[in-house]
């Protein structure tokens, strides 16, 4: 198994994270349909002050995650997400990746 997690940090609570958008909703539908048998788990968590969001996903293998990363639909969404984050002062750490046993 292969775990990937990314953190997003917003400057204050009045700025919504990208996951609160219609673009994200459409992205989730696409990923759920196309990668249901490849991604084992995904979890989104906010820290206690609500400023740091961590998204963790577990894939069946690094190869499956690499395939996902090359999907044009995914790349288009990530481009939108990164532009949204830049324009709203949201920073990203990661993705951090590791093999799991």
Total number of distinct structural domains: 1
Tell me, rounded to a whole number, the average pLDDT.
95
Q: In the CATH scheme, what's the topology name?
A: Alpha-Beta Plaits
Give the helix tally: 3
Helix content: 25-40%
CATH class category name: Alpha Beta
Give me the secondary-structure category: alpha+beta
Low-confidence stretches: none
How many strands appear in the DSSP assignment?
4
What is the succession of H and E elements? EHEEHHE
Tell me about the largest β-sheet.
4 strands, antiparallel
CATH architecture: 2-Layer Sandwich
Strand order of the largest sheet: 2-3-1-4
* Percent strand: 25-35%
Shape label: globular
Oligomer: single chain
Describe this structure in words.
By secondary structure, the chain is of the alpha+beta class. The chain has one domain: Alpha-Beta Plaits (2-Layer Sandwich). Helices cover 37% and strands 33% of the residues. It contains 3 helices and 4 strands. Strands 2-3-1-4 form a 4-stranded antiparallel β-sheet. A hairpin with a 5-residue loop joins strand 2 and strand 3. Helix 1 packs antiparallel against helix 3. It is globular and about 35 Å long. It starts with a strand and ends with a strand.
Lay out the secondary structure.
Elements: E1 2-9, H1 22-34, E2 39-46, E3 52-59, H2 62-69, H3 72-87, E4 91-99
Antiparallel strand pairs: 1-3, 1-4, 2-3
């Amino acid at each position: 198994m292969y775990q990937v997690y990314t953190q997003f940090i917003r400057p204050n609570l009045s700025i919504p994270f990208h996951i609160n958008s219609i673009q994200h909703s459409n992205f989730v539908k696409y990923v759920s349909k196309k990668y249901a048998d490849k991604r084992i788990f995904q979890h989104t968590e906010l820290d206690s002050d609500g400023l740091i969001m961590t998204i963790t996903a577990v894939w069946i293998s690094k190869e499956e995650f690499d395939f996902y990363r090359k999907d044009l639909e995914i790349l288009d969404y990530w481009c939108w997400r990164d532009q949204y984050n830049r324009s709203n002062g949201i920073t990203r750490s990661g993705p951090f990746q590791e093999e799991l046993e």
